[in-house]
Amino acid sequence: MYAIIENGGKQYKVSEGDVVRVEKLNAEVGAEVSFKAVMVADGETVKVGGDVASATVTGTVQAQDKFKKIIVFKYKSKKNERKKQGHRQPYTAVKIGKISL
What we know:
Blueprint: E1 2-7, E2 10-15, E3 19-23, E4 32-42, E5 45-48, E6 56-66, E7 70-76, E8 81-87, E9 90-100
């Protein structure tokens, strides 16, 4: 059984026991969080739309961390214009516990 959840304008495919890195949530480590399910599939049946209006996916927060640093380098030729920046996007690691319909 798996579900498609929505968080931060993105969709994630999750199963029970998976650890997913989602957009930063305002929750403490060890707290319970729930997500709205967009689609739920188990074996041969797939439920979408009104069938999953009450479906939720719950999980526990494992960590609050940042991704690896990426380098943003802006450059304009023949102008001696250069700008180098680093960026680390924060995320929340969530362990999926239960998919309920």
